[in-house]
DNA sequence: GGATTGTGTATTTTT
DNA sequence: TACACAATCC
């Protein structure tokens, strides 16, 4: 655990030197050049599927094994915990021992590590808490309220977004340039930002952005410290460099400022997080930032077949702002990329499900199959269809474990126990379950706390000794404070797991969910059990909290044979044999909203997203679009995505279901005037009551709308999607139906026919 | 202090 | 349509 590697040419070192050749074997010339490049700035432009992670980890191992740096002298940063974990595993596999001591982790984790050691230099105490998105928003809300602004006009969410943006760019309140001020809150944005930061300091807390921003303040404000870190980190390695924001870039540049021994790996064509503050400019500008930088391109793709690669390359080649790479493969050409046009989102889901079943019958694995969509709402149609045909699937994304309300509530309890002055956590659970401490009591507490400049809990403690509050509230408060004191006394005595159980029990939190009869209550109780189990892995409760704030992950699912459904963003870094890219329609993909907000730049990012999606596929790629889609229960018809036009024709084949080639639908879709008429190439048009009926896919059936009164309660009906059912209640044209297979649902009468 | 009704909104989300 | 939140009533 010393973190020291035995290096040298004798003893254990000789064994390592003997293996040196082995870890370089199997690398192609470019990969090998990247791994063994001498000290100095190095940019590795690694196209999709070209062995990026392998190069990065092998280079790290190479640096250690050749003695250029010892583990604690290496800083390696990633964006996700997953990537960090993978890197640790692979490096350990390469060097054959633990890499303890290495500074390897996410930007944020490395930021915290530095900040904990020097918290007082930026006005924090070492035990500071890290706020998540939820806390941030509530804090912002308080700031807006304190400034007497209209909360509806200037929502907290927007303020958080603005502050986040400034932090991503490395601006402290006094550094925000005038042009960036904007008109939020009548130009008071900076004032609010300042108030927000002051409040964070009094709470002894940081938000995610601060983890890096304070890091910058730390390094720029303390030259000795900077010099110390510059000497310490003899090698810096960065993964996914195209996703770095300005703050991260500045942080890296400071740390690498001495020796400039920095390796950045990335792919400008896969930059899809600009809306999160990522600056493609960082990677495009690397050679100017680090003069004399070596640039190595990895262009040999080991993942996809020829047609897939060529189709993806053809699309991305339309982007103007990029380094430019020419991916190639020695693999087989494989199948053509298939393009299918469907009538509506339901037919699209049906089509995909059919294709997956056929693939499975031919021996394909579901785990090797993914359906990738642009926006979350698109998953629904697929889920419904997959359930109907019994196709096992999982939706990746969704609410993550540590973001679920019950988990956050439980953690808020733990936080108050560990950090009594954590006001945000206390506010979250002070009246949960209900214990008679309502809004008016809370208001009084807040006022008192602010006046005395103490924390909420301290104010509550003081107030519970006076008779300022109504007896009811006062008693509840006395009781709560005593309970928290008791738990806190048990911190050192009980194991974290026992304590966690005690807290959830004695607070009445578990009981609250047990008493609740909503359908998701059992699931929530299950999650709480999972949480307690997770606590077990840690020596102390505070230790657990530190982990939670930085690692937001879903519980690992059993590795069953499942189809994966997820967003294109979520798919970055993954690969599958068989990939479906659904919903390629103007307006949806590329997203009209993105284009409205970001113009050409945004369109290029959408195109990169298309590229990312396409390059996820190893053997088979199917792109689909629907002529009609129901959005908020309104039918709208759309035009195929321009990205479909951009697919090189020689690498694709149109499936017959494409409406543009179908005589019955083609007349309106293929109609040039129709396309010309639409101002933004995306237009919507209501198609009232037009609907396809299961099993009669080729017939466009139109039925009358609003048959109110035509049905009677108790009547047996048939619905094309949910099957047979009985009408329980009628409300205008909405029927409340108990379906035999799908349970109780409210549906519009026009979709229902008498059985 | 708590339940109920009404209103506005609706991408992507590594930490 | 659905859901979350806020104003409103009891």
Summarize the structure.
This protein is of the alpha/beta class. The protein contains 29 helices and 23 strands. Strand 6, helix 11 (246-255) and strand 7 (262-266) form a beta-alpha-beta unit.
Model description:
The strands form 5 sheets. Strands 9, 10, 11, 12, 13, 14, 15 and 16 form an 8-stranded mixed β-sheet that branches. Strands 3-2-6-7-1-8 form a 6-stranded parallel β-sheet. Helix 4 links the parallel strand 2 and strand 3. The chain has 755 residues and is α/β, with parallel strands linked by helices. The protein is built from 29 helices and 23 strands. It binds a DNA duplex (15 and 10 nucleotides) through residues 78-83, 106-109, 111, 130, 132-133, 151-152, 208-209, 211, 240, 243, 272-273, 275-276, 278, 374-377, 397, 431, 434, 436-441, 472-473, 549-552, 567-570, 572-573, 588, 591, 593-594, 609, 630-634, 746, 748.
Biggest pleated sheet: 8 strands, mixed
Helicity, as a percent range:
40-55%
Described by the principal axes of the CA atoms, the overall outline is: globular
The poorly predicted ranges are: 1-20, 658-709
Topology:
Elements: H1 12-24, H2 29-36, E1 42-46, H3 52-65, E2 74-78, H4 81-95, E3 103-106, H5 107-117, E4 129-130, H6 133-146, H7 156-168, H8 189-202, E5 205-206, H9 208-221, H10 223-232, E6 235-238, H11 246-255, E7 262-266, H12 280-284, H13 286-289, E8 294-298, H14 306-316, E9 337-344, H15 345-361, E10 369-373, H16 379-389, E11 393-395, H17 405-418, H18 423-429, H19 439-452, H20 456-463, H21 471-489, H22 496-506, H23 509-515, H24 521-536, H25 541-550, E12 563-567, E13 576-581, H26 592-614, E14 617-631, E15 634-637, H27 642-645, E16 652-654, H28 663-669, H29 672-677, E17 690-692, E18 700-702, E19 716-719, E20 723-731, E21 734-739, E22 743-748, E23 753-754
Parallel strand pairs: 1-7, 1-8, 2-3, 2-6, 4-5, 6-7, 9-14, 9-16, 10-12, 10-13, 11-12, 13-14
Antiparallel strand pairs: 14-15, 17-18, 19-20, 19-23, 20-21, 21-22
Helix pairs in contact: 2-3, 3-4, 5-9, 6-7, 6-8, 9-11, 14-26, 15-16, 17-18, 19-20, 20-21, 22-24
The structure holds a DNA duplex (15 and 10 nucleotides).
């Amino acid at each position: 655990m010393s973190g020291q590697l035995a290096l040298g040419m004798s003893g254990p070192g000789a064994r390592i030197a003997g293996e040196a050749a082995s870890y370089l074997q199997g690398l192609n010339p470019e990969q090998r050049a990247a791994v063994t490049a001498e000290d100095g700035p190095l940019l590795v432009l690694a196209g999709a599927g070209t062995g990026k992670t392998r190069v990065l980890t092998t280079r790290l191992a190479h640096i250690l094994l050749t003695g250029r740096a010892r583990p604690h002298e290496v800083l390696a940063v990633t964006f996700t915990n997953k990537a960090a974990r993978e890197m640790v595993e692979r490096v350990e596999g390469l060097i054959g021992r633990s890499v303890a001591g290495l500074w390897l982790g996410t930007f944020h984790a490395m930021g915290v590590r530095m900040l904990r050691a020097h918290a007082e230099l930026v006005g924090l105490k070492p035990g500071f808490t890290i706020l998540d998105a939820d806390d941030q928003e509530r804090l912002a809300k308080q700031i807006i309220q304190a400034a007497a602004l209209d909360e509806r006009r200037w929502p907290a969410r927007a303020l958080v977004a603005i502050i986040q943006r400034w932090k991503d760019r490395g601006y402290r309140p006094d550094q925000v340039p005038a042009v960036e001020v904007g008109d939020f809150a009548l130009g008071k944005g900076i004032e609010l930002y300042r108030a927000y930061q002051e409040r964070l300091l009094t709470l002894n807390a940081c938000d995610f952005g601060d983890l890096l921003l304070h890091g910058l303040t730390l390094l720029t404000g303390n030259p000795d410290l900077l010099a110390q870190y510059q000497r310490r980190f003899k090698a810096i390695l960065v993964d996914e460099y195209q996703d770095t924001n300005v703050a991260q870039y500045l942080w890296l540049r400071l740390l690498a400022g001495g020796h400039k021994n920095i390796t950045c790996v990335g792919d400008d064509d896969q930059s899809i997080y600009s809306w999160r503050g990522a600056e493609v400019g960082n990677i495009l500008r690397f050679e100017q930032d680090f003069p004399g930088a070596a640039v190595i391109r990895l262009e040999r793709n080991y993942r996809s077949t020829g047609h897939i690669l060529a189709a993806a390359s053809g699309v991305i080649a339309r982007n103007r702002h990029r380094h430019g790479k020419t991916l190639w493969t020695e693999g087989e050409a494989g199948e053509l990329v298939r393009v299918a046009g469907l009538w509506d989102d339901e037919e699209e889901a049906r089509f995909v499900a059919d294709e997956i079943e056929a693939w499975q019958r031919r021996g394909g694995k579901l785990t090797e199959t993914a359906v990738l969509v642009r926006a979350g709402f698109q998953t629904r149609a697929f889920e419904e269809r997959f359930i109907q045909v019994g196709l096992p699937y999982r939706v990746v994304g969704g609410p993550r474990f540590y973001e679920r309300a019950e988990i956050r509530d439980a953690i808020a309890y733990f936080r108050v126990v560990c950090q009594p002055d954590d006001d945000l956590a206390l506010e979250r659970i002070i009246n949960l379950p209900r214990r008679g401490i309502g809004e008016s009591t809370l208001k009084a507490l807040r006022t008192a706390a602010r006046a005395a400049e103490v924390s909420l809990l301290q104010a509550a403690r003081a107030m519970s000794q006076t008779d300022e509050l109504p007896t009811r509230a006062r008693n509840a408060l006395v009781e709560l404070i005593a309970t928290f004191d008791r738990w806190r006394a048990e911190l050192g005595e009980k194991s974290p797991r026992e304590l966690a159980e005690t807290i959830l029990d004695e607070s009445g939190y578990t009981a609250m969910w047990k008493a609740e009869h909503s359908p998701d209550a059992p699931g929530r109780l299950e999650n709480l059990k999972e949480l307690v189990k997770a606590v077990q892995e840690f020596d102390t409760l505070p230790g657990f909290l530190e982990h939670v704030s930085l690692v937001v992950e879903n519980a690992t699912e059993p590795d069953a044979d499942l189809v994966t459904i997820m967003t294109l963003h979520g798919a970055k870094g993954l690969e599958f044999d068989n990939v479906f890219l659904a919903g390629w329609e103007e307006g949806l993909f590329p997203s009209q909203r993105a284009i409205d907000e970001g113009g050409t730049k945004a369109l290029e990012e959408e195109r990169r997203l298309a590229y990312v999606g396409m390059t996820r596929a190893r053997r088979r790629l199917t792109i689909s679009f629907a002529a009609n889609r129901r959005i908020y229960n309104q039918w709208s018809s759309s035009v195929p995505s321009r990205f479909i036009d951009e697919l090189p024709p020689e690498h694709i084949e149109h499936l017959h279901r494409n409406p543009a080639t179908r005589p019955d639908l083609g007349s309106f879709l293929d109609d040039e005037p129709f396309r010309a008429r639409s101002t933004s190439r995306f237009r919507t048009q209501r198609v009232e009551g037009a609907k396809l009926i299961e099993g009669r896919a080729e017939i466009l059936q139109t039925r009358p709308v609003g048959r109110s009164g035509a049905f009677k309660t108790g009547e047996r009906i048939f619905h094309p999607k949910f099957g047979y059912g009985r009408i329980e209640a009628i409300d205008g044209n909405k029927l409340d139906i108990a379906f035999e297979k799908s349970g109780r649902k409210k549906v519009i009468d026009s979709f229902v026919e008498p059985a």
